[in-house]
Amino acid sequence: MPRIDAMEAAADRAGGNAPRCTVDVARSMEHMMQAVAIRAMVYMAEQRCPYAEEFDGNDFAATHLLAYVDGEPAATMRLRYFGDFAKSERVAVRREYRKLGIGTLLYNHAIELCRRKGFSRLLGHAQKRLVPYWARFGFRPMGDTFHFSDHEYVPILLDLAAHGDRLGLDSDHLALVRPEGDWDRPGILEQSQIRPATNPIGDE
């Protein structure tokens, strides 16, 4: 999966005048701190969500995506996985970057990642006022409105087209141990193949 999305290509075509926007999977504690900072700005500061409700105990059971504008952390999203569907959560875009379409890039990346992992459906909980926005991605409402953290939410569902190169039991086993979302490049464990298999058992 590409780490750099369409807006960087647009910036190149414009001679560097357009912002350079990238999306990638969070892979370090620094990345997690960036995601936390963005969510605190949007949910705690703007929407007055209590800390314990925003940071709900699920952050270490999820994939986090980060979007950057000229290297500055601008948006984030959390993905969790349940049987035959994935769930998008905690989508947050900093106020100063909301006119750039960075949320669209973030969601396109999330959709591609979920398709590659073999999921056929993506579930979300949209604030009621934002259902028309999510309809632009193909999400449709399902179920009844409910509320938490002082907002009304609508369950929304997106059907995902099957990926021609989705990961599965017949995938290259070394591809399956590469970093999340970076399955097309050889990883560190492939580099370890220059060493012979000594099968150490730690007798010393």
List the keywords:
204 residues; alpha+beta; Aminopeptidase; eight-stranded mixed β-sheet; 6 helices; 26% strand; globular; disordered N terminus
CATH topology of the domain at 6-120 and 160-180: Aminopeptidase
CATH architecture of the domain at 6-120 and 160-180: 3-Layer(aba) Sandwich
The CATH superfamily name of the domain at 6-120 and 160-180 is: Gcn5-related N-acetyltransferase (GNAT)
> What's the end-to-end separation, in Å?
42 Å
Radius of gyration from CA coordinates: 19 Å
Give the structural class: alpha+beta
What series of H and E elements makes up the topology?
HEHHEEEHEHEEEH
Shape: globular
Q: Could you name the CATH class of the domain at 6-120 and 160-180?
A: Alpha Beta
* Count of DSSP H/I helices: 6
Describe the structure.
This protein is an alpha+beta fold and 204 residues long. It has a domain at 6-120 and 160-180: Aminopeptidase, CATH 3.40.630. 26% of the residues lie in helices and 26% in strands. It has 6 helices and 8 strands; from the N terminus they run H-E-H-H-E-E-E-H-E-H-E-E-E-H. The chain has helices at residues 6-13, 29-46, 51-54, 102-116, 131-135, 188-191; strands at residues 21-25, 63-69, 72-82, 85-93, 121-127, 140-141, 146-148, 151-159. Strands 1, 2, 3, 4, 5, 6, 7 and 8 form an 8-stranded mixed sheet that branches. The longest helix is centred in the first third of the chain and has 18 residues, at 29-46. The relative contact order is 0.13. Residues 1-14 have low confidence and may be disordered.
